[in-house]
Amino acid sequence: MGFDPESRHVRPQQIKFVSTLLLAVAVIVVGARCQTSSTPPEKPAEQEDAGVVPTDGGIAEPDGGEGDAGEDPDMPLSCPEETTACKTSCTNTSLDTENCGTCGTRCNEDQECIQGQCLAMGCAPFQQACATGCTEVAIDPANCGQCGKACSAEQVCVNGQCAEPSECPPLSVLCGGKCTLLSEDPANCGQCGKECPAGQGCREGVCGPMTDCPAPGVFCNGVCTVLAKDPNNCGKCGNTCEPGRTCTNGSCEARCQAPAVECSGICTILDADPSHCGACGNACGKGMSCKGGKCEAGCEQGWVLCNGECTELANDARNCGACGNSCAANEHCVQGSCSAGCGDGGTLCSNGCTSVEYDPQNCGTCGNVCPSGKNCVQGSCR
Q1: What torsion, rounded to 10 degrees, do the Cα atoms 221, 191, 333, 356 define?
Q2: Which pLDDT tens digit goes with each residue over 41-67?
Q3: What is the mean pLDDT of residues 265-278?
Q4: Residues 6+ away with beta carbon under 8 Å from 128
Q5: Greatest mean pLDDT among 50-64, 97-111, 273-287
Q6: Could you give the CA distance from residue 204 to residue 218 in angstroms, rounded to a whole number?
Q7: Which of 130, 186, 241, 343 is disulfide-compatible with 147, CB 3.0–4.6 A?
Q8: Residue 157 vs residues 47, 227, 305, 346: alpha-carbon distances, Å
Q9: Please, is 238 exposed, middle or buried when counting C-beta atoms within 10 Å of its C-beta (0-12, 13-18, 19+)?
Q10: Do residues 366 and 204 make contact, with C-beta atoms less than 8 angstroms apart?
Q11: Where are the alpha helices (DSSP H) in the chain?
Q12: What is the rounded distance in angstroms from the CA atom of residue 109 to the CA atom of residue 188?
């Protein structure tokens, strides 16, 4: 076969065919790429503004729909003052037995939550459970009137109110920051700091069995007291008289009844009180008495002057029946005679039998010592 020189040249019909074929292929390829593109279509503007969130099912729901109703569970509770957020509620952890002191601290069934501490129930009716335990808020300077209310170091608690030490009620003395009756206080029985053994009470300044509280006395919180005259237990245990009032026949009344007046916190009769003779603060000299509001030489009726002091010979063991007649250590002066026991009307105090109505060393109650220059008249230092 011979070579055809015409075969080296491409015919125009062939070029047109090939160009048409290539264009068709390009169109097909570009169309396929557009359909499989991974770029998502733009959202309509109204969807973006509404915060629409597409779901797997292709249905969009706006934010804030029913599925998102309510507060954010991760948002902390906003609780009022003096309360704490515990789980889903606000509570007072100082009182809540389920959250006592801290969230989740639960008290036992026989306990209550007081000032954030689980404390045993069962305080006496006249006591209150505070963080320090059961206490009498009427006289406790650390819990005066209510738990946690503390008086200053210079003050005492009198009938639930902080007061100056000079404001202790009549016959009371200051012991450890508290006004107390030495005749009845088992923590200060007869003298400050003398504590009765466990299970014993204090009567007339002497520790004894809790059963040793003869009528008209009754025990209130281990203290043998007379409800007719005790301002902290007036008429019944725990009934405290208000400041400025005293307990008379079991009722809280004005401190002094006419013709008595109050001098230095004590009700007295100015016509007969040698410490306040005629006027408060006008004291008679040693061995003198007050008659008609005037100081006169001599002692009160029934008393005699022994060694410069007015004394009652019927009960004074140092001057029993006569000045200078001293009874033995194991004897007491009963109706002017030395005896081993106390007679009617006598009270056994730490220094022996005595009349608390007239004994300046045990005035009104055992252990209540009258200040220098004052006598004991009807149970009051004057």
Answers
A1: -60
A2: 554 444 444 443 444 444 444 444 444
A3: 76
A4: 134, 135, 136, 137, 143, 146, 147
A5: 97-111
A6: 13
A7: 130
A8: 74, 20, 39, 33
A9: middle
A10: yes
A11: 12-35, 45-49
A12: 35
Question: What is the C-alpha separation between 51 and 377, in angstroms, rounded?
Answer: 94
Is residue 53 within 8 Å of 61, Cβ to Cβ? yes
Closest CA to 351 of 173, 202, 191: 191
User: Over the range 291-328, which residues count as b (16 or more CB within 10 Å of their CB) and which as e?
Assistant: beeeeeeebbeebbbbeebbbbbbbbbbbbeeeebebe
Answering whether pTM is above 0.70, one says: no
* Whole-angstrom distance, CA of residue 206 vs CA of residue 194: 10
Residue 233, CB-side half-sphere exposure with 13 Å CA sphere:
22
What amino acid is encoded at 141 in this protein?
Answer: P
Cα 21 to chain centroid, rounded = 104
* Count of CA atoms in the C-beta half-sphere (13 A) of 156: 19
So where are the chain's domains?
Answer: 81-121
Q: Is 244 left (phi over 0), alpha (psi -120 to 50) or beta?
A: left
H-helix or E-strand containing 119?
A: strand 117-120
Describe the chain by its helix, strand, coil percentages, rounded to 5: 10, 25, 65
Highest mean pLDDT among 14-18, 32-36, 57-61, 319-323: 319-323
Residue identified by tokens 């729909």 is 65
Cβ atoms of 267 and 246 closer than 8 Å: yes
